[in-house]
# Entry
Amino acid sequence: MKCATHPDRDATGYCRNCGKPLCAECARNVRGALYCETCLDSLLVPPAAPAPSSPEPHPGVALALGFIPGLGAVYNGEYIKALIHVLIFGGLIAMQSRDISSSYHAFLGIALACFYFYMPIEAYRTARARQGLHDTPRALDEAPGQRPVGALILIALGVFLLLANLGLLDWDWLAKGWPVALVGLGIWMLLERSKGQL
# Structure
């Protein structure tokens, strides 16, 4: 009988674990028992236990926690997104507390309500995606071939709040002209949708 590893050499024994024929060079003697190197290695070093997998977030819990600003994103493990949600929500509330016209208060109130209901819906969709129930939603600035919309919105909001804090905004003009932003957003959405259908 020849060695399983070295076919040109005669076997001097057999592995106690797998029964493979071994030459004198391949045999490992442990207290009178012969083992091949592979079996001896597996006996000395037990296989690593699989890492405990963290449970996927439950969509219902994510939806409920999403009503608390940032908490739904934290539950889904998205800490940067949670911070952004808190900053936007806090910024909108801070703007509501300023001495501004009633029409501007109405605009900020609508924006605050929309964002408040956006957070739980977004947390719910992310949790469903993590469970594999539908495609993972991509961030606005990760979509192929598109502009980084999410980053641009944050920059615009930051510039707006900074100008407001420095007193450089004309509130009367802003209170009367804010519907132009809605018209512009609608036109932009129509153009983007028409591009996707071409």
About this structure: Residues 136-145 have pLDDT under 50 and may be disordered. The longest strand covers residues 28-30.
